[in-house]
Write a structure and sequence with these properties.
single chain; three-stranded mixed beta sheet; Rossmann fold; alpha/beta
């Protein structure tokens, strides 16, 4: 007989032989005992964990010739000796049809299956369809199968195995019983490998078997495939293959985790040169940067879990640590030693950096450089200081508990960082002197109770003084001046003059206010005073007459006539009622030349002309009457404009003359 690989040779034939899926096997055996057989099952989970195997065992149990409870079959397990069990185990049973849904995924194949399902089984009790990789069936094919799944014949049982149950339509999943398989634990895989090694006559130490179990990554089939390959490449001693950890690592292209432990020790010691040296040795040996990054990520994950679960340097793991760390005892001790060097936050940052590096290696050209850069980032992250340690170096203001950079030289620091990394800062007491309210020797803003006579032009109410809230006591060597806020009810110019204050009694005199330079007040049209001998009205009239006399400047003449002219500060400010967008169109460059010429003729050529656009206010001014003979007056006389005013209660604000002036 041809050689049979270990994964097929030691495939379970009973529910009890399936490792790590007790929640599925117990449920199915109880259903068989009670006769609660469903017409559809969905088995989903990781690859190589027994989905198709359990489907075949269930098919044998359903079509077994011996009844449950008989001497040949005392339990719900198949008897394995009847004709049906033998044929199903060999894979040539007529009524058990196993279909590869990856290749038979179309609607035509499903229609043929649906038509064949109407006929009763040839010999056995049930006609069973096992659909492997069922998630690859098209939606149209699933829709063609819906009616059969909803109202199937009593002799039909569908079993679908898939690694992606979310790709199966919800309408199909709701018509079947769904069993979610678990990844096989490391202990279960290790036990199976140990038993198979004994039956195969292979000498394997515990470290080699643990390495094979870890390489399986929760898949029994993967672990058996790697073991089969390792036995083929193992040296033979006394006619028996010999498996050791070094040979298996070389076969899988991995490096021992002791290398990553050395890397983390170099990171802890801030030795960048050693980190790069170790990486160079690994890469020169022919190891792939992506494979090294992947293995380092797994090792960092184990270190994080060891830190969280409290695994010490001796590797003692209890409770949840045993479930979370699916590695051998030696690897647990190694992960515990590495985890003891760092805090949980640092290990988490290391894992995040290496995960990002592993992702980037998939599409980078220079993988070596990116892998080395990722290792150097770990050293740089180690140099970062916790925010608590940084804040603890600032002095703390007494009474407020807040840090600040302006503390006094005599203030004692409230907190200092623990030299050990990853620990909280130690709080120390602060010596605070008794709170003494700090105030100046005198207050220049003491409010007077004297009421000034409102009839006197020099007298006015005293300024309202609002002292600020007393500041909290601060540990300092010099007194601080308490700031105050002064609010005047009238302009500063209306305060009492010094001559008026001299008439007050000595008990009610206020100390002289300190001289403070006033901030310049922006000029407005309400407070500008004419500082020129030129009259604004005369200048406005001269500009308006010049524009009216000019050809085609009637619109500009109307805008200038309706504007507000102010002469002050060496400027002539013309506040028009035209918007900012329309102002260059109404008063164009030609009109501006006419205005400047008129101002020169009026003797105001040295003043600067400033044209200002109109500003919308809450209360618009009532428009002035149109000048006789102006463009606006002509527009108001037009019957269409008058009709629009009467219909819509319209108001003519500005008129632009667009007629041909030639």
């Amino acid at each position: 007989m041809a050689y049979q690989v270990l994964a097929r040779k030691y495939r379970p034939q009973r529910f009890a032989d399936v490792a790590g899926q007790d929640h599925v096997t117990v449920t199915l055996m109880n259903a068989l005992t009670q006769g609660r057989i469903a017409h559809g099952y969905i088995f989903s989970g990781h690859r190589g964990i027994g989905k198709t195997t359990i489907a075949r065992i269930l098919a044998m149990a359903l079509n077994c010739r011996n009844a449950i409870g008989s001497p040949q079959r005392p339990t719900a397990e198949p008897c394995e000796v009847c004709e049906s069990c033998v044929e199903i185990r060999a894979g040539n049973a007529v009524d058990v049809i196993e279909i590869d849904a990856a290749t038979n995924r179309g609607i035509d194949e499903i229609r043929e299956l649906r038509d064949a399902a109407r006929y009763r089984p040839a010999r056995d009790k049930y006609k069973i369809y096992i659909l492997d990789e069922a998630h690859q069936i098209t939606d149209a094919a699933f829709n063609a199968l819906l009616k059969t799944l909803e109202e199937p014949p009593e002799h039909i049982v569908f079993m679908m195995a898939t690694t992606q149950p979310e790709d199966i339509p919800q309408t199909v999943r709701s018509r079947c019983q769904h069993f979610s398989f678990h990844a096989v634990k490391l202990v279960d895989i290790l036990g199976e490998l140990r038993g198979i090694a004994q039956r195969e006559g292979v000498d394997a130490d515990e470290a080699a078997l643990s390495l094979l179990a870890e390489a399986g990554d929760g898949s029994m089939r993967d672990a058996l495939s790697i073991m089969d390959q390792a036995i083929a490449s193992a040296p033979v001693e006394d006619g028996r293959p010999r498996l050791d950890a070094g040979q298996i690592r070389e076969l899988m292209g991995t490096v021992p985790n002791a290398v990553f432990e050395r890397l983390l020790e170099a990171v802890d010691g801030n030795r960048s040169a050693e980190v790069i040296t170790v990486a160079n040795q690994l890469l020169d040996a022919g190891n792939s940067p992506a494979q090294l990054a992947r293995q380092f990520v797994r090792y960092l994950r184990n270190c994080v879990i060891a830190k969280i679960a409290g695994v010490g340097a001796d590797g003692a793991a209890e409770g949840a640590a045993t479930e979370l760390l699916q590695i051998s005892a030696d690897e647990q001790r190694r992960a515990g030693r590495s985890a003891s060097l760092f805090s949980e936050e640092e290990l988490t940052r290391f894992l995040q950096v290496m995960l990002r590096t592993f992702d980037e290696l998939g599409y980078r050209q220079e993988q070596r450089f990116h892998f080395e850069l990722g290792l150097l980032k770990l050293v740089h992250l180690r140099r970062l200081l916790p925010i608590e340690e940084v804040l603890s170096k600032f002095p703390v203001s007494a009474g407020t508990g807040q840090t600040g950079s302006g503390g006094s030289p005599r203030a004692t620091s409230a907190a200092s960082a623990n030299p050990a990394r990853g620990t909280a800062p130690v709080t120390r007491p602060v010596e605070v002197s008794p709170a003494v309210p700090s105030k100046p020797a005198f207050s220049p803003f003491k409010q007077s109770t004297r009421r000034f006579d409102e009839s006197s032009p020099a007298a006015s109410p005293a300024p309202v003084v609002e002292p600020a809230k007393p500041s909290p006591p601060v540990v300092t060597t010099a007194p601080e001046i308490t700031p105050v806020t002064v609010t005047y009810s009238k302009p500063v110019d209306s305060l009492p003059s010094p001559e008026a204050k001299e008439t007050l009694p000595d008990a009610e005199k206020e100390p002289a206010l300190p001289k403070v330079d006033k901030e310049p007040v922006a000029p407005t049209f309400s407070n500008l005073q004419s500082s020129s001998s030129h009259s604004a009205e005369s200048l406005q009239k001269a500009a308006t007459d010049a524009l009216s006399a000019a050809k085609g400047q009637d619109t500009a003449a109307d805008a200038v006539a309706e504007a507000e002219w102010v002469v002050a500060g060496g400027e002539i400010r013309v506040q028009t009622e035209v918007s900012k967008i329309m102002l260059p169109m109404v008063i164009n460059s030609e009109a501006e030349k006419v205005i400047r010429a008129a101002l020169r003729d009026a003797g105001a050529g040295t003043l600067k002309l400033v044209l200002l656009p109109g500003v919308k206010t809450a209360t618009e001014k009532k428009p002035k009457a149109a000048r006789v003979g102006s463009v606006q007056a002509k527009a108001l006389e037009h019957p269409i404009v008058q009709r629009a005013q009467s219909l819509f209660n319209a108001e003519v604000r500005s008129v632009i003359d667009l007629r041909d002036t030639e």
